[in-house]
Amino acid sequence: MQTIERICQRDSFSLDKPVETILESDHLSFVRFIGGNASETEELVNHLHSLKEKDKLLIGVFRFPFVFEGKKRTHTAACQYFRMKELCDAVMYFHSDSLMNMIDSSTPIRDALMIFNSIEDYTIDSLLQLIDKTGDMNIDLHDIKSFVNQYEGPLFIHTVEGDSLDQPLKYLITTPYLPEDFFDGKQLIINIGYTRDVDMETFRQLNLRLHDLFSKADIFKIGSYFIDEPDRRFKLTLIVNGMNDPIEAPDNYKKIPKYNNLLRKWHRMTELGRKKFNLLKS
């Protein structure tokens, strides 16, 4: 039996939300950020630094702006993406233009944004459920951290459900908002949930087709778990890493110097020491 210390602090990035309100004792944090606004870059960096100092597994959820928002926002978003990738353990990304393909063009703006957020939430939940429902093959937070630290490319997570393999599996997995090259990932985690009436032939075919689709990837772990519900249905969760970044780093992009991180840690330790000293005095 596996005991999981509850892991998630889900955080939609907010400039007016104090970092101290989300640090608590959780071990896995998601930071969602919509790129393009240059005035938010500094606070994003500070926000991510504060989370990393708590030694968490930190996963960024980055959304690129619409192309029609202009080249300046696109360039800013590119810099922010690489900054988030630099500071997080892993980054999942979404293109707003691809998310647009999931809705009708007449959808009201507020409704569209809620749909986009729900798609990102579904991706986050896919990772959490993978850890919660590990089946016979134990997949824990340490495994996920080891997995994401193997490669520097973006992280792909997707969950699909089905009741038939009559059509090619790739059509079931593919959606407009997914990275186009996720079949070319270098490393893969697979977790398969199955209901009461899923037979061994379906289970065999599902595994064969997955290995065929991801022939370039090394299998990090495979898990399966029973869903105690009627009917014939499977739930498939995939995590892929080792893909290429969706864009190239801008020519003027520079990584944060290592001494900046050391200086930041020194300032934080000094501040903590000062607070403890003042507390003892009072």
Plain-language structure description:
With 282 residues, the chain is of the alpha/beta class. 40% of the residues lie in helices and 21% in strands. The chain contains nine helices and eight strands. The strands form two sheets. A four-stranded parallel beta sheet has the order 1-2-3-4, with helices on both faces. The protein has a four-stranded mixed beta sheet with strand order 5-8-6-7, with helices on one face. Helix 2 runs parallel beside helix 3. The N terminus is likely disordered.
SSE series: EHEHEHEHHHEHEHEEH
Q: Which blocks of ≥5 consecutive residues have pLDDT under 50? A: 1-7, 9-26
Sketch the major β-sheet. 4 strands, parallel
Mean pLDDT, to the nearest integer, reads 80
Give the overall silhouette: globular
**How far apart are the termini?**
47 Å
In brief, what are we looking at here?
The protein is α/β, with parallel strands linked by helices. It has helices at residues 20-23, 41-52, 71-87, 96-100, 109-132, 141-148, 169-173, 200-213, 258-281; strands at 8-12, 28-34, 57-64, 90-95, 156-162, 187-194, 218-226, 234-241. Helix 2 runs parallel beside helix 3 (71-87).
Task: Annotate the secondary structure layout.
Elements: E1 8-12, H1 20-23, E2 28-34, H2 41-52, E3 57-64, H3 71-87, E4 90-95, H4 96-100, H5 109-132, H6 141-148, E5 156-162, H7 169-173, E6 187-194, H8 200-213, E7 218-226, E8 234-241, H9 258-281
Parallel strand pairs: 1-2, 2-3, 3-4, 6-7
Antiparallel strand pairs: 5-8, 6-8
List the main descriptive attributes of the protein structure presented here.
single chain, 282 residues, alpha/beta, four-stranded parallel beta sheet, four-stranded mixed beta sheet, 8 strands, 40% helix, globular, disordered N terminus
